[in-house]
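Bench notes, afternoon.
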Amino acid sequence: MSKLQRKPQNTKIAAGVTLVQDINEANSGLEYVGFKMIDLKQGAIYEESLSGVECCAVALAGKISVSAGGKTFENIGTRASVFDKIPTDSVYIGTGESFTIKGETGDSRVALCYAKADKPLDVTLIKAEDNTTEDRGKYQNKRHVHNILPDDSKLADSLLVVEVYTDGGNFSSYPPHKHDVDNLPNESLLEESYYHEIDPGQGFLFQRVYTDDRTLDETMAIENRDVVLVPKGYHPVGVPDGYTSYYLNVMAGPTKIWKFHNDPDHEWILERE
C-alpha cells in the first residue's frame, strides 16, 4: 500500500471515543497540515489542548457541543450523514486554546483539521449558512463544493478547509492540478489531505498523486474513510459509476492563498465547448 494512503485505525482512546484517523507531522511527513477523525457516542467527551497549531472542528455527522475559549456552542451539526449534501456547522479554535467536544447524538463524527499557526485568533462558530457553496466543472468533471474556511477567510491564520461531492462517473480535482511551489502570484505552496467517504459504503474510487518528473507517482484504490496525503504533486480523483464521493480537504502552507497550476498535458480539457 502507498505511504500516502491511510486506512482507518479505529482506536478506542476514551469511553465512547474512537480515533479513526490521526495524521500528524511525526507520522505523515507533512510540515503544515494535520488531521484527526473522531467518532463519539452520545455523552462521550474528547479533550485536547493546542500548541503551535490552530484547529477547525467540523461536525461531519450527528450533533456535538464544543467548548473553547470560554465559549460553548451546543448541539451544532446539521446532518445525519455527509451524504445529506447540506453544509454543516464548524468551530474554529485558535492556537493556545484548550477545547472539549461532547457527542450529543447516538453517533457523531467530528473532523479535526489542523494547520501550523503563530497568531492566536478568536474561537468562532462557523454556521452552516456561513459556508459558501458552488458547482464546478462540466461534462464528466462536475462536483459540488462547500467552502468552510476558504483562503479569503479572516477567521484562520493559515488553515483552509473545504468539502467536495462528486457523483459517480465524474472526476474531481480535475484536470489534474498542483500547488507545491512557492511562486506567487502564479502558484502557492500548500500541503493537502483528503478524508474520503463513499456512498454506498462498500464502494471505492481512485486517486493518483504524481509529479512532473514522476519521482512521485502513486495510484491508489480508496475505500470508505481512508485518508490520502498530498505533500506535493497533482492529485485527481475518479469516481466509478453508481457511487457518490465525499471528501474533506485540509490545506495549509507558508502563505494562506490557493493558487494552483494545471498539468499542461491535460489543461486542454478546460477549453472544450
